[in-house]
Amino acid sequence: MNTTPNSNRKHITFFGKTNSGKSSLLNAIVGQEISLVSSVKGTTTDPVMKAMELIPFGPVVFIDTAGLDDRSELGGMRIQRTLKMLQRTDFAVYVMDINDIGTDTNNDTDASTDTNTSANTNTNNNANTNNNTNTNTNTNTNTNTNANTNANANANTNTNTNTDTDSKNDDNDYLEMAKLFKKYNIPHMLVINKIDTVSQEQVKEAAKKFKDAVFVSTKDWQSILALKDELIKRLSEDEKEPPIVGDLIPYNGKVILVVPVDSEAPKGRIILPQVQVIRDCLDHGIKSYVVRDTELESALSDLRDIDLVITDSQAFKKVSETVPETIKLTSFSILFARYKGDLETFVKGVSKVDELNENSKVLIAESCTHNQSHEDIGRVKIPRLLNKHVGKELRYDFKMGHDFPENIEDYDLIIHCGACMMNKKSLQTRIDLCMEKGVSITNYGVLLAYLTGILDRSLEIFNLNY
Q1: Less Cβ around it within 10 Å: N or C end of the chain?
Q2: What number of other Cβ atoms are within 10 A of residue 250's Cβ?
Q3: Are 443 and 416 in contact (CB under 8 A)?
Q4: Mean pLDDT over residues 231-235, rounded?
Q5: pLDDT per residue over 183-208, tens digit each?
């Protein structure tokens, strides 16, 4: 399980103010010195990632981030990177120093609070929401506007989480982050740290205020174990991973996987989507047969009662001509459009192709980074086919990995890869952003099926029509 790709791991991100103990807490959970720990504020600069097995839940990625109140010279940039991690976060942990809790114990704040009501705080005033009894009200109005960033750099959501570092009240900062967790559908938990530095009475008062919080000290191993147990419990409450083909094909069904071997194919192995489909077939008792496109015709004559043929999108045209109309056909990329993204949105987005002209601007986004070749699907084949279909030379931009532009409204169409190297949350955030900005988005497989005139056939297995 240590070799499970990060794209298949739950991403758990630690958020909080500087010196709240995020790094120490992560090190304690992981059992290794992953993040640098110091009493100097702003020690953590860029997000730090650690993949591990969280037994008995499974493979996860822990992410440590810079403090949300970083007032250093580069603090604004660090906060931008921290908040951008919301795009990739499956589960959030907000870490609060118990010494930074506001003194108004009458203002109960549930860690699972409904942020529509409890988090509706005017952050410009940044005062206690009930009785204004907080003695730090005047200092809390010193919001650092230079370090204030978008919650999602692509979503243009302004959130004043950056309060004056002299403030002792972290309540409002937490509530503001809780609103962002809700906005991006991220389940979260509140962890109140450093309980060894205060009296038991103060811990009890904090527990009244934050009823669902987990109270820990990195000096108390039992509290760390309790935190792990609670984290596993809450992660397990999350929805189960959907199947890739297991709900499309009956038990004991037959699937042929067509894997062309060309200069783009990695030497000595097959690519991740193909591996995942094979594993999903094994998990659901589906028989899978892997062949090259050059042996497909003979494989079809060898087998009977084939339920589905799945091909690499680049071979769509050739494979479609070889596979009889009585056998259903789709591609790995289209399967992953459903598995990790929103197939219906991608199908709807491909209709934008017929509106493109010589002034149109197209973004091609790939989740992995690799060397380009003369057969590169994203940079060579798709632009060539799209230009031929439109009859014009379109303008293209290319982005790779987690580099996704803020100005997506400048594009007429976004074409995304199958996202096999990206977790589902990252891709869904991009889709949501496109929907919010009214930008059409599709993916490689859907586009190639459309350009080769077989989109309806490739969607038949999903009971969808273009």
Answers
A1: N
A2: 12
A3: yes
A4: 91
A5: 888 999 999 999 999 999 999 999 99
Asked if residue 446 lies in contact with residue 350, where contact means CB atoms within 8 angstroms, the answer is: yes
Q: What is the pTM of this model?
A: 0.70
What is the fold of 254-335? Rossmann fold (3.40.50)
Beta-strand (E) ranges in 226-384? 254-258, 287-291, 308-311, 328-331, 361-366
Burial of residue 388 (CB within 10 Å: 0-12, 13-18, 19+) is exposed
Residue 382: CB partners within 8 Å, gap ≥ 6? 364, 415, 444, 447, 448
Structure tokens at 455: 């989109």
Interatomic CA distance for residues 208 and 203, integer angstroms = 9
- 114-171 per-position pLDDT tens digit: 433 333 333 344 433 343 434 343 334 333 434 343 434 443 444 444 444 444 577 8
Look at residue 204 and give its three-state secondary structure: helix
CATH for 6-236 is 3.40.50.300
User: For 454-457, which contacts have Cβ atoms below 8 Å and span 24 or more sequence positions?
Assistant: 454/316, 454/317, 454/320, 454/329, 455/347, 455/350, 457/320, 457/325, 457/328, 457/329
Structural domain 342-462, CATH architecture:
3-Layer(aba) Sandwich (3.40)
Q: Can you tell me which residue has the tokens 């820990």?
A: 216
Residue type, 19: N
